[in-house]
Amino acid sequence: MCGIVGYVGKRPALKILISGLRRLEYRGYDSAGVAFFEGSATGSKIHIQKSEGKLENVERLLDASPGRYEDVCCGIGHTRWATHGKPTTQNAHPHQTGHVVLVHNGIIENYQTIKAELIARGHRPQSETDSELLGFLVLEEMNRGSSLFEAVRKSFQRLQGQCSVVIMSEKEPGTVIGVRNGSPLVAAADPKGGAILASDPQPLLELAREVVYLEHGDIVVSNDRGMRFYDLETGAPVERHPTQLEWSADRLDKQGFPHYMLKEIYEQPTALIDTLNGLLDRATTDPFTLARQPGVELLERAKEITIVACGTSWYAALLGKYWLERWARIPVNLELASEYRYRDPVMNEGTLLVGISQSGETADTLAVLRKSKKSEIPTLAITNVRGSSISREASATFYTCAGPEIGVAATKSFTTQLLSMLLFSGALMLKPRAAAVPGDITRRFDDMIRLPHVLSDYLGDRSGKMASSIRETARALQLSKGFFFIGRGYSFPIALEGALKLKEIAYVHAEGYAAGELKHGPIAMIDENMTVVVLAPGDTWRDKTVSNLQEVKARGARILGVGSASDSELKSMCDHWIELPNVQLDEAFMPFFLTAVVQLLSYELAVLKGTDVDKPRNLAKSVTVE
């Protein structure tokens, strides 16, 4: 959601703040702003520049006074994703209350109570946000004689809900304080002296490779000498150990691609290889042998698995459910985290709860893991971010190796989640209950090792056959009033994902359906202005899917078929055709190729419609609030 950056040290602060906020744009936002001590870090006045809309608006405000802010070396910045209050300049962060200035990420659930109390005491909030209210609480505490540290500590404990804040005061220039309670906050020491704070590690990459992920209830106090950590409740010092970042700043560049999303689609073969190398025990040639870690034992002990996830991760989990049940013969329950956390589910003895989150900060998924942990239910996390909240909450964690994903719409993080689920299915296929044929295990493992290379060949480059075919198809279909994605079996989750991608980045009405469900209502929507995307590789469900295709064809829909190169019958029924690679692989691997197709189709349609592909409206990369 919202992005936070704070810096104090000996470098030009505004350059660091703006660069850091650029690194956080992928999270999604609708307003931005910076606050800083004019002159040196010990200057006495804080100046604020903020605006609705994009970060460029703030840069223009700063550029209106060239040279004025060159000596600034202490400040905070923010990109806001609106929750309380409209996306206006007035509601944009930073917020100033007297000599106190802050930025905030998350939600203050008891803000109405606090607001009523503050108004009764004569305060007059200037914005519609919940964030500004904390500033009044801190101001009151400091007026009673508390230091900034004590005022922040006491005031923050009044808040209910998951949130983080970075704050400074004109009464204590050169000090930036951060508090974490739920929403992520990361800190790093500047080797030249000072410290930088941010919502996630990406703004820190250019200054430091060792970062500290704050724990729940941590306060970090930073100045030009470095940073110190304290416990929110007691105020006592605490020790926090840094984590070495594996990503590098150059991996965040577009590297010649017009959009991050397109770059990340083409990075998928490499991400799959990296994930295989990260999760497999490469010291053995035995198939599907996972590198030993606590999560492996949890998987092997499980009698039943419940998976919780949201959005794209839920679709990856749905395909994982199919693989786990078919290959490993283990019961799998799949739940939307946002619903599951408010139910009173019955958990059988021996159940393992698995939470999947690309960012590792998804609020609903985290809440389920924490609740399960309190109930002493073993938990396993799958995430792309080391040091993230989900990795610290779970009993054990498997990390995908997608690398940084800047585009808001998930691409390589989705396929690496799929690969993780496939690996788990293969590993559990070795257990006696699975009763798998040894030849099948070896064949599937060999196919999995080939998968990234076959996918790389299939993707080719932007001028290749597959990309060109999709681009031409997008041009032909760009005026469609809506899209239905249909598939059966392993293709059904990809139909859901394809529809989501199109909605996310092209703002086109799209629905994903199990092909057999069309006649139970949705077929009423079919007419000549609707496009039906039929995902029908030559697998177990192909014939049934083609039968359902006949139903929509008879009602005049335009048909885009995605199928095997040799499937001339299916191709003849379609108005447009995209063929899958002509290779011999187990049908379980076809979803990876279908995924590439629906990703590129959505991308090309979004480009034709002129939308902001990497930063679609109203969306956030890391959903840290309910």
Structure description:
The protein is of the alpha/beta class. The protein has three domains: 3-251, Aminohydrolase, N-terminal nucleophile (Ntn) domain (Glutamine Phosphoribosylpyrophosphate, subunit 1, domain 1); 253-459, Rossmann fold, CATH 3.40.50.10490; 460-613, 3-Layer(aba) Sandwich (Rossmann fold), CATH 3.40.50.10490. 36% of the residues lie in helices and 22% in strands. The strands form four sheets. It has an eight-stranded antiparallel β-sheet, covered by helices on one side. Strands 5-6-7-8-12-13 form a six-stranded antiparallel β-sheet. Helix 9 (311-328) links the parallel strand 15 (304-309) and strand 16. The chain is globular. The mean pLDDT is 89.
Q: Major sheet: size, sense and barrel closure?
A: 8 strands, antiparallel
Radius of gyration: 26 Å
The rounded distance between the terminal residues' Cα atoms is: 11 Å
Q: What's the average pLDDT?
A: 89
Looking at CATH, the homologous superfamily of the largest domain is: Aminohydrolase, N-terminal nucleophile (Ntn) domain
**CATH architectural arrangement of the largest domain:** 4-Layer Sandwich
The CATH class label of the largest domain is Alpha Beta
Choose one word for the global shape. Answer: globular
Instruction: From the 3D structure, determine the CATH topology of the largest domain.
Output: Glutamine Phosphoribosylpyrophosphate, subunit 1, domain 1
Class by alpha and beta content: alpha/beta
Taken together, the total number of domains comes to 3
Count of discrete alpha- or pi-helical segments spanning 4 or more residues: 19
Order of strands, main sheet, comes to 3-2-4-1-10-9-11-14
Indicate the low-confidence ranges by residue numbers. Answer: none
Strand content: 15-25%
Helix fraction, binned, reads 25-40%
- Give the total of beta strands: 24
